[in-house]
Amino acid sequence: MSTTHRRPPTEAEQTERTAKSERLAARLSPEQKEVVERAAALAHQPVSQFVIASAMRAAQEMIQQHDLIILSARDSAAIMQALLHPEPAGPALKSLAEHYEAFMKQ
User: Fold this and answer.
1) Which of 29, 34, 44, 106 has the most CB atoms around its CB within 10 Å?
2) What is the pLDDT of residue 92?
3) How far apart, in Å, are the Cα atoms of 47 and each of 32, 35, 39?
4) Is 2's pLDDT higher than 60?
5) Which residues contact 39 (CB under 8 A, 6 or more apart)?
6) Residue pair 36/46 in contact by the 8 Å Cβ criterion
7) How far is CA 9 from CA 3, 6, 17, 70, in A?
8) pTM reported for the whole predicted model
9) Which ranges of the chain does DSSP label H, i.e. alpha helix?
10) How far apart are CA 60 and CA 53, in angstroms?
11) Spatial contact of 99 and 92, defined as CB atoms under 8 Å apart
């Protein structure tokens, strides 16, 4: 008796199995439509599948770029300097800390 081990579904396969109820419409020039159709054909995908996959990649990249903080070497050094050698607390911060401590004791 042999057992078959199935691999977990890929993200694309999981997405394909998810019920699709939303629509997205776009108007294209004839030239844009031709380019999209050609690219889909080269990818061996239906146009709608190609457009969705391309839009998802672009959306995920945009979100990642937005969420990612990129620091220059100078900025990184300044942050490390501040973390390793913090400035002493000023009067405003000391006052805030005292208010917080009093508030927490209530």
Assistant:
1) 34
2) 94
3) 12, 11, 8
4) no
5) 50, 54
6) no
7) 18, 9, 10, 33
8) 0.53
9) 11-17, 30-42, 47-67, 73-84, 91-105
10) 11
11) no
Annotated domain spans of the chain: 26-84
Single-letter residue type at 73: A
Contacts 24+ apart (CB under 8 A), 24-27: 24/55
Length of the chain (residues): 106
Q: Which two tokens stand for residue 14?
A: 């999981």
The token pair at 23 is 């629509």
The two structure tokens encoding residue 68:
């990612």
Which residue carries 């942050």 as its tokens? 79
Quote the tokens at residue 54. Answer: 């391309």
pLDDT tens digit sequence for 48-68: 999 999 999 999 999 998 888
Rounded CA separation 84/97 (Å): 21
Summarised one tens digit per residue, pLDDT across range 68-96 is: 888 889 999 999 999 999 999 999 999 99
